[in-house]
């Protein structure tokens, strides 16, 4: 659907995209759309919008591994909406094999600050990046456990298309799968075993990124159609879907109104050959309601 809709847009290369709109300090707004809603958004974009293209490809595979303490300190800071919250993750660009370790913190007025460096260790370990993580969290005023106490807690995999708008950036994430990494250990009530996974089916996570407080042209299109930003975090939302015992207050409305877990009879879970594990599909709530009534 995305490829068909964006086929007429001119390409932009990675170097120009980064030079024009790297936006490591930015304001993010996220929306969870079904296919029809996403198509409507894309059809209304400024004709000057360009799409990231590398070696003829316009959609790329991403994998992120999130790190947290055994007590899930980073998650609970987000669940309690603390201003000094943070995320630590590795991000792998699967097509090129390039990996970075990233630290995300919050500045004033809801601005997100992302700092990263190239990462030579495996994506499921921080290795020599411990010092970088500690330095960045300290500089941001975050009272966090030392990086050596962090361990892999959640893995997300998805495909991303990136658009350069005249006034910002827009990313479209599809085929999103959250997985409990092998060897994960934490004290979560109802925690699923390593390898447990959930997948978003028929949904697109749309994120607008601007350097200032004002909305982008894509935000305005969505607002005119009645959409408002959804509270969704690839880390926190994925963790609550995999571990129902966790507090989910900031994301509860979005989960209940936009997402629905497809009911799979016991003993009939669906194996995903790409993951080597059983996957629980997450569908648009309206879609599931229409199928079951």
From TrEMBL:
InterPro entries: VTC_domain, VTC_sf. Pfam families: VTC. Residues 26-243 form the VTC domain. It comes from Myceligenerans indicum. It comes from the Bacteria. CDD domains: PolyPPase_VTC_like (cd07750). This is Polyphosphate polymerase domain-containing protein.
